Amino acid sequence: QVFCQVEVEEGAESVQLPFTTTENLPGDAEVEWWRYEPEPPKTVHKYHAGSDQPDARDQFYRDGRTSMNVDALETGNLSLTLKNLQLSDSGNYTCTARKSGIEQGQATVQLQVQRATGGGQFCSIILTSHDVPVFVHIFVVRSQQTMFLREPAA
Questions:
Q1: In 10 A of CB 142, how many CB atoms?
Q2: Residue 147 in domain
Q3: If pLDDT is split at 50, 70 and 90, which confidence band does 18 have?
């Protein structure tokens, strides 16, 4: 089940794949982001025992292309930032949070990286809340790591 859908242009500096779960996960909790589709599955990001596990990532996602907030376990904000977007980043990304091996939450985000047209730099996120789509547009600033939320046009 897809939790939300994110669209962004190729070449965008970064995009955030959102996921929020229970606050105050214990320090030994494990968070894993995987890309299952298209195959083969790849480990995108792994966070365990209070720190990132860069050696656990697939080679495609090394070199600092992914990050999570340093206070992710305390806040429950397990969103993943993916940098230097490429067409090949398109796919379904699943995040799973576990403590003591027991799943605490899971979400799937569908990322669609579009070929750059030179005009639009907007990222559209479609969140589903109680089966009602909610549209949010994020303006992606290529020269900085800042994103601005904008209300959709009426």
A1: 11
A2: no
A3: very high
